[in-house]
Design goal:
Elements lengths: L13 H7 L29 E5 L16 E2 L5 E5 L13 E5 L5 E6 L12 E2 L5 E5 L16 E5 L5 E6 L10 E2 L5 E5 L14 E5 L5 E6 L6 E8 L5 E7 L6 E5 L5 E6 L6 E8 L5 E7 L8 E5 L5 E6 L10 E8 L5 E7 L9 E6 L2 E7 L11 E8 L5 E7 L12 E5 L4 E3 L4 E7 L7 E7 L9 E4 L3 E6 L11 E8 L5 E10 L7 E10 L2
Parallel strand pairs: 30-36
Antiparallel strand pairs: 1-28, 2-3, 3-4, 4-5, 6-7, 7-8, 8-9, 10-11, 11-12, 12-13, 14-15, 15-16, 16-17, 18-19, 19-20, 20-21, 22-23, 23-24, 24-25, 26-27, 27-28, 29-31, 31-34, 32-35, 33-34, 35-36
Length: 526
């Protein structure tokens, strides 16, 4: 069982990983693997990648090793969970629930106290304003582990008052719950259920009423999937999710209708991915996700798209670049307000066993946005990113499971980080051509467009008005990664006497588009 004081390895053996990765949202990393005990020179603050907080772990009561991204609540603050820190009877602390305010203030609002009672998932905020989450153990049932119980679903107020809503009485290991359109909570358990085909059960799908009444909606049997780890409700009202194993042995995507009809939409075979780790519904109605392993290249996982009818397309195969510089073991995926997909890998970047990456997919174009790399074998910028969210301010926020400045945890205790969206920065604010003879073309004036953010700047088009003309355009159609630039040259050919004004405009996917530059020049007779 994964307990809150255990930092379970991302094991390289697939059978071992299947057994250890009880809950996808809680696949934890191990300091026992030397690659995770290393730690990145802190990047500069700005539109680029920025560390906002270093977890300090036990005995500071601060929390450590967050294995999911925080969520942003209706009050604008961020709330999340850590697997370590916070004190209690666990060696490295039993885990915490924290609040990270917009002004940078970090507060532990709850500290778990006993082995197995720590958080087993991130949080959701329900319609009642409270937060709900799960624990891997706890609850007191002797049917699983006498000292830690079988797992619970809990409710916690923004002020930190925690109540157990439901205690499981079999080896459940519940994943993060969701609130469905009917107001009830729904979720999956990695283990448990009626089937004898898996040790400890193949897992279940359940519904929990606000009053704490739990109904098992479906029990997996192995051939239809085993070890479910994610559940979502789609726009058609049905529930979709993934299992880490089962099917053909390498995981599945499944569907459960509101009427209770279950179907396995897809079984992975290895070449198209292995161990699906994330699933979301995109704006186009289809589902997108990532797999931890498998794929057509180095086995570093995939990004996939699947329809509600089960037609799957592989969008990207990881470890196609030398030394897995594009990432290894894809872990999370989200779609941002710009329509692009952003995700994280647990490993890769600087090497096969590197500190992980943040990536972006725009259409069929893949880009690595950030590599968690060491400086002198120290990952001060964090290591093993656990996920991303987009805040209401348009910026991206996330956590790393390890790395950072504190070594009070099994591994370094992790970080909270942020980075900005693509930012189009022009090198000048005005082009003044001065005096120019009628019908003669001026010398070209050149300006530079730079992406000073982190995400990819694309969809660039350049336009000019009136008696000005584009002499050279190195920007239209370009895709600019962080720090990259392109250049445009403009000329002036007056056709009338006197002052002439115009505008040079850049449209792109950056906030504030279009970016404009005023142009002016004066037509003269000689």
């Amino acid at each position: 069982m994964l307990t809150s004081n255990t930092f379970v390895p991302m094991l390289r053996s697939k059978p071992e990983k299947l057994k250890a990765a009880r809950n996808l949202g809680r696949v934890k990393m191990a300091c026992a693997l030397s690659a995770l005990c290393l730690a990145a020179a802190r990047p500069a603050i700005g539109q680029g990648f920025t560390v906002l907080h270093d977890f300090e772990g036990y005995p500071t009561q601060n929390g450590g090793a967050p294995y999911t991204a925080p969520m942003q609540a209706s009050d604008g603050n961020f709330y999340g969970t850590t697997s370590q820190g916070g004190g209690g009877s666990c060696t490295f602390g039993c885990g915490t629930i924290y609040k990270f305010a917009a002004d940078g203030t970090y507060t532990v609002i709850y500290s778990f106290q006993t082995v197995g009672s720590g958080p087993g998932s991130g949080l959701i905020q329900a319609s009642d304003g409270n937060f709900y989450g799960t624990t891997a153990g706890g609850g007191g049932s002797p049917n699983c582990y006498p000292t830690s119980g079988c797992g619970t679903i809990y409710k916690i107020t923004p002020e930190g008052a925690l109540t157990t809503v439901y205690s499981f009485n079999e080896e459940a290991d519940p994943a993060q719950v969701i609130q469905a359109s009917d107001g009830n909570l729904y979720g999956v358990t990695y283990g448990g259920g009626a089937s004898p085909n898996c040790s400890g059960g193949c897992g279940t799908i359940f519904r929990l009423t606000p009053g704490g009444v739990l109904t098992t909606l479906y029990s997996f049997s192995g051939s239809d999937g085993s070890g479910p780890t994610k559940l979502l409700q789609a726009t058609d009202g049905s529930f979709y999710g993934i299992t880490l194993g089962g099917g053909s042995g390498k995981g599945t995507v499944f569907k459960l209708t509101g009427q209770g009809t279950f179907s396995t939409l897809y079984s992975f075979n290895g070449a198209d991915g292995w161990e699906p780790a994330s699933l979301i519904q995109a704006a186009n109605g289809n589902f997108f996700g990532v797999t931890l392993a498998g794929g057509a290249s180095g086995g570093g996982g995939t990004v996939f798209e699947i329809t509600s009818a089960g037609a799957l397309t592989t969008i990207y195969n990881f470890c196609t670049q030398k030394r897995c510089e594009d990432g290894n073991e894809a872990y999370t995926l989200m779609q941002a307000s710009d329509g692009n997909f952003y995700g994280t890998t647990l490993w890769g970047g600087s090497a096969v066993e590197g500190g992980g990456t943040i990536f972006e997919i725009n259409g069929g174009t893949f880009a690595t946005l950030h590599k968690f790399a060491p400086a002198d074998k120290i990952y001060l910028g964090g290591q093993a990113p656990a996920g991303l969210i987009q805040g209401t301010d348009g910026n991206f926020y996330g956590t790393t499971i390890s790395g950072g400045t504190s070594d009070n945890c099994v591994s370094n205790c992790g970080t909270i980080f942020s980075f900005g969206p693509a930012t189009a920065k022009l090198s000048i604010a005005l082009i003044n051509f001065g005096n120019e003879v009628l019908q003669e073309t001026s010398a070209a004036h050149t300006l530079t467009l730079k992406n000073s953010g982190v995400t990819v700047l694309n969809g660039i088009s350049v336009f000019v008005s009136t008696e000005f003309a584009i002499a050279a355009d190195g920007c239209t159609g370009r895709t600019l990664s962080a720090g990259q630039t392109c250049k445009v040259s403009v000329t002036f050919t007056p056709t009338a006497l006197g002052l002439q004004t115009g505008t040079l405009s850049f449209t792109d996917n950056a906030s504030g588009s279009p970016q404009t530059i005023p142009l002016k020049g004066k037509g003269t007779s000689n």
